[in-house]
UniProtKB/TrEMBL annotation, chains A, B:
DNA-binding interval(s): 23-42
Keywords in alphabetical order: DNA-binding, Transcription, Transcription regulation
Taxonomy, superkingdom: Bacteria
InterPro entries, sorted: Homeodomain-like_sf (IPR009057), HTH-type_TetR-like_transc_reg (IPR050109), HTH_TetR (IPR001647), Tet_transcr_reg_TetR-rel_C_sf (IPR036271)
Organism: Streptomyces amritsarensis
Domain HTH tetR-type: 2-60
Lineage: Bacteria, Bacillati, Actinomycetota, Actinomycetes, Kitasatosporales
Database matches in Pfam families: TetR_N (PF00440)
Protein name per UniProt: TetR family transcriptional regulator
DNA sequence: CCCGATTGAGACACCCACGTCTCATTCTGC
DNA sequence: GCAGAATGAGACGTGGGTGTCTCAATCGGG
């Protein structure tokens, strides 16, 4: 069984999303490889987490590109963004909670770049009159991440059907829970 | 310096919300007591986390009571709920992520009771026509927890002003990010 | 004021995960 | 088929956190 670095990272992400305290041995078995091999490719647990960060950043850079955030209205772009992010939602959930631990350190510049793109998207929506201006782009970005993570967990626990993932997030984030009069 | 069990728990919650991997020694120092004393009152780390769960459940039972979830419209009740939950938002953020680790075990019945109350609130709102019926109460409940946690973290990191806590959560959850026509 | 209870500081052993290493086996390219 | 590389399984030492214990100091009620 050849060692596929990216596949190992994906398996690790899938496990660590559910159990962030998983052992290196558990990660290795989840990836179907030996613990020694895991250590050969990732110097240690920190290196593994960093590699997961890099993977996540790469994946979301691609997802953002595919979502064509600059095209159409911001609302349309946001729907595409959630759709593109879905395959990596668990990874996002893991990385968001993991990033809480690096409070003091400087934030990874890759994350800053991604954040900036989402913030710019919300700001564009505000300037075009489609997004409320009383909710800051920074908060909307945080909320987007939070909702994606929450929904990913809810799907994992069976509280939300996987097929409803995009709908639940985009509808709640964009339209809110309140039943508006015009509907 | 007398040992105030509840105060120790609150200090522990404040620290663990930010750094979930904090040492028992760090927790003890954060609470201003010795590690030995901490161990005298909480058999171990697991016992401490359980005590935090109990504290959280107690706090939110009270918060829910104070919010009078059965009075007025569901929307009004939800606003009161967020207001009452704010002082314990960090604790909620910690417990929600911590609960992810107990996937296999049976969920704490206290949480189930709280969940049921929130779900019932959303369901009531749906029945009264104030809440959309295409978003399941279970998802709305998860989203509420997620947004509270996300906002609590955003406040801790300075990305959201503490004074905007209630507004950001209730407005986004109820009204959504989209700028509606009637406004 | 005194005596019991509680606390803080430290010492101690224990345990688990980590990281490294070895070695036989398997895989892969030539 | 062969030689080199890569892998899996396991052994091994280490470190850091945990849990327990002791003992002196402090606190608090009678």
């Amino acid at each position: 069984m050849a060692m596929d670095r990216d596949q190992v990272l994906r398996d690790a992400a899938a496990l660590l999303s559910r159990k962030s305290t998983a052992t290196m041995d558990e990660v290795a078995r989840a990836a179907g490889i030996g613990r020694a091999t895991l250590h050969r490719h990732f110097a240690g647990r920190d290196a593994l987490v960093r590699a997961l960060e890099d993977l996540g950043i790469r994946e979301f850079e691609v997802a953002f590109d595919n979502a064509r955030l600059d095209e159409g209205t911001a609302v349309e772009a946001l729907r595409r963004l959630v759709a593109e992010a879905e395959p990596n939602a668990e990874l996002l959930a893991f990385l968001v909670t993991e990033n809480q631990l690096f409070e003091g350190d400087e934030v990874n510049e890759g994350w800053a770049r991604l954040d900036a793109r989402v913030i710019a998207l919300f700001r564009r929506g505000q300037e075009e009159g489609d997004i409320r201006i009383d909710l800051s782009p920074a908060w909307l970005t945080e909320a987007l991440y939070g909702l994606i993570g929450s929904c990913a967990w809810a799907v994992m626990d069976g509280r939300v059907a996987a097929k409803d993932f995009q709908y639940m997030i985009t509808e709640l984030l964009l339209g809110g829970a309140r039943r508006s009069v015009e509907k």
